[in-house]
Predict the 3D structure of the following.
Amino acid sequence: IIATVILLDRDSLSPGDQCFAQFRLERPTVFLSKDRFVIRSYSPIRAIGGGHVLNPLPSKKKRFSKDVLQELNILNKGPDQAIVEQHIKGSRLQGLSKTELSFLTNLSQKELDEIINRLILDNAIFKSDIENEIFIHAESYNKAKEKILTILADYHRRFPLKGGIVKEELRSKMVPNMREKVFNQIINDLIQEAVIVREKDIIKVKGHQIKLLQDQEDLRNQIEQIYLKEGLEPPYFKDLGQSIIEGGGRDLLEVMVKDGTLIKVKEDLYFHKKAIDGLKRRLVDFIKEKG
């Protein structure tokens, strides 16, 4: 197999020296951890080195990175438990299944089970998806909690008139391809810890409340008076006037729907609750009168 060799801790390798390297292969192939290999030059064809596989399914590594070299040192010389933990840690919030760990470590099922159980007892990792047995490192999990709280705080700051962020939008701001069950478990844990609140598909920091500034309160009252006056023939949002539209009227309408002042019938069409209540009363009186 033709490959490009990327030295990770130096620019060149002298005869007899050793270093960490990443191979970028011409075509996909299969290796297991600890498999040995021989390196031959292309022309002339002769053996120029060799080594063994530390990670058969690596991400692209950054050269001269202390974190990368520390990770590779663990995979090269660490005990099996440290190697398993490093692979789980390296997967971040994607996590790894037992099948993936078996492939990455080349350990027997019995050895792997014993190590996983010890890591769980040490609170170093935990099982996120009970059904599929996905293992997440505790450090990644705790960082994810912190990131969710940071995202929520920033969202509340930028959108003070919104009750919270839609759950899927929050998930999209986390790491790419984050497993849905992992995300759901983090959300549920934060709810259990009374740090955040979920209302249907909306997530917010516990205690967050919509607080209107004086000019927003004035605009809200202006909007309410329009819907009260028009009763059962309310205007569409686009007809409320440029000053209301540009002044944050859309967000205020949603605030008024949430607090029960307005009723949203369809996109862009709202009724004041008193108008609907009046219509209900007239319908009831009409039915009673006609028997």
